[in-house]
Design brief:
The structure is a homodimer of 337-residue chains. Chain A has 337 residues and is of the alpha+beta class. Chain A has ten helices and twelve strands.
Chain lengths: 337, 337
């Protein structure tokens, strides 16, 4: 059935039924929810903590293509990207509002799959979809807002602006796999099946580092960002906000093994500028960083140092200490190439 | 300058500077704000009240046309529409997240005007723009999320589901002017200058009924919705959610004088189904309704009664009690015509 046959209100009702699964008594956030989808606004009991909110747009043929992602994967990824922003603050995500804009001839089954993808990632990370909007549009646009709060009642959060000279620069997980996955899918590259599966999963099914963000906070980290635009680009946000500079040792950057194995010289570029890995990039003292490495359930790698130099400057050096120049510096959505 | 020349991060920085105006110490919401635009998420102190959130999409050539609205008006209207949803809950709007998707050749000056329109309506209603997202897109898409709370600490809110047989049905202000304004602008109709100005203002510069929503709550009203899709369509949302029926006396519907004066027989249709008036439609006992009429600073008109009949049924009668049939029943965004 087409979306146009169901009508806007029919579609809302249909999605509301699916979303109610996430608003039940079993999910923690549902316990504070008063009204979910179906009224003018979502309503819940506040708890006097520090509140967080983030919004993202996912636009067809800009941020995604229906040729490389299934509707279900698209739903997962769109919501995961917003959850990643809450992870980068060390927050606890709780509620999501999802606005879907769709061509009238979209199959309702496809929208259902999209929504199910969102509900899957929502349930995995304790997030209920409580509202949003649907409308007609010439292309698919997914707008997600995620609301969350801090674990404690104080304003203990990870910001971009607390990096200090002497801090180590570190990342969770491996980099470059999402961008490599996109390249594999669009260019129909054939790799070893396990490598192919890893890269596809990295691109289509990213997992926001919610637990890791909270661990960083608990261990005393003050500065973090999620890697959505690319390591270099996202690091530069930290450097500018903190008014510091950084030195990154290229050979320490944890390039995903499947990227290293299949992309030759391009592997470094994918890891530095690929984006969409949704790993956390953070800075902290050597001691705090060591604590994080000890306690994290994922690999955490030190890749460089925060230094006092020209604000925003990133010096990339290789293992011999020689300067290294990347060919790209993150995704600038508007930039003309 | 084009948006593409400024780049995504340049645009964010530019908009953040403008938005800081709304986050200063003079505005009430700013006092609780910890981090606005420029980090991974907006952050503020919760106050243990009941929290509200609503999201809307405004899509070029679906919800608006750049031929009938200036960028500034577009900004005003997009945010006003979301504020209206908070008004319909009787809430106090506090923070907004704005995601802008724009073609790269959009003039930065136009985006600035759009943002200024949002800031104007935000400042008028005490709302700070604290976050969002910008991205490239083949058409202009504005997604607004508004966060608010109840005035008190209890869950005292206006819902769609509390209408009871015996309730009066009433509306704030006048209806039909926004749809008439759209028709005037698209068909280049020439009216008496004052009428023309009223209709244009109604369509381009709607004022969310924030104070009126709070007044309704204070006076004991339990059921309300804002008229975004049209009186008949929005009333039917209340009726379905409350499992009741309604009888509306056509001659009691407060058609805007400028619509009555210039649209002949079509005036009734515009008032019943035109949409985008952003007035509040509510139901309450005769006594509560009288109190609201006495205390409201805008006209409030009783237009019918809630009755116990087939769920969702709306009976339209004229002054002689004869049945009346509208030609349209609200805007169904997806419905094929």
């Amino acid at each position: 059935m087409k979306v146009s046959e169901l009508g806007e209100f029919g579609l809302i009702e249909h999605l509301a039924k699916i979303a109610y699964q996430t608003q039940g008594k079993e999910t923690t956030p549902g316990q504070q929810l008063i009204i979910g989808i179906g009224d003018d606004a979502a309503v819940w009991h506040g708890d006097a903590r520090v509140e967080l909110a983030t919004a993202d747009s996912f636009i067809q043929d800009v941020h995604f293509s229906l040729g490389t992602a299934s509707w279900n994967e698209l739903g997962w990824k769109a919501l995961a990207a917003s959850l990643s922003d809450i992870a980068a603050m060390g927050g606890v995500p709780k509620y999501a509002l999802v606005s879907l804009s769709l061509p009238g001839d979209t199959e309702v089954e496809d929208v259902t799959d999209l929504y199910r993808g969102m509900i899957q990632v929502g349930q995995q990370f304790g997030v209920a979809i409580v509202g949003g909007d649907t409308s007609n549009a010439p292309l698919v646009i997914i707008n997600t807002t995620v609301l969350g709060s801090t674990k404690g009642r104080d304003m203990h959060i990870l910001t971009r602006s607390a990096a200090k000279p002497g801090d180590k620069v570190a990342v969770t997980g491996y980099l470059g796999a999402a961008a490599a996955g996109l390249e594999m899918l669009t260019k129909h590259l054939i790799f070893d099946p396990e490598d192919g599966a890893s890269l596809e999963r990295a691109f289509l099914h990213p997992e926001p580092r919610i637990a890791e963000g909270q661990l960083l906070l608990e261990q005393g980290v003050k500065t973090a960002i999620d890697i959505s635009d690319g390591l270099v680009s996202d690091l530069s946000h930290i450097l500018k906000a903190s008014r510091v500079s950084a030195q990154i040792v290229i050979d320490r950057v944890p390039i995903h093994p499947a990227v290293k194995a299949n992309f030759g010289d391009k592997a470094v570029e994918l890891a530095l500028s690929g984006g969409e890995d949704y790993e956390l990039l953070f800075t902290a003292s050597a001691e705090v960083t060591r604590q994080v490495i000890t306690k994290a359930s994922c690999p955490v790698t030190v890749i460089g140092n925060i230094i006092a130099d020209k604000i925003g400057k990133i010096t990339l050096i290789d293992r011999e200490g020689k300067p290294f120049r990347p060919t790209k510096t993150g995704w600038e959505h508007f930039a003309t190439s």
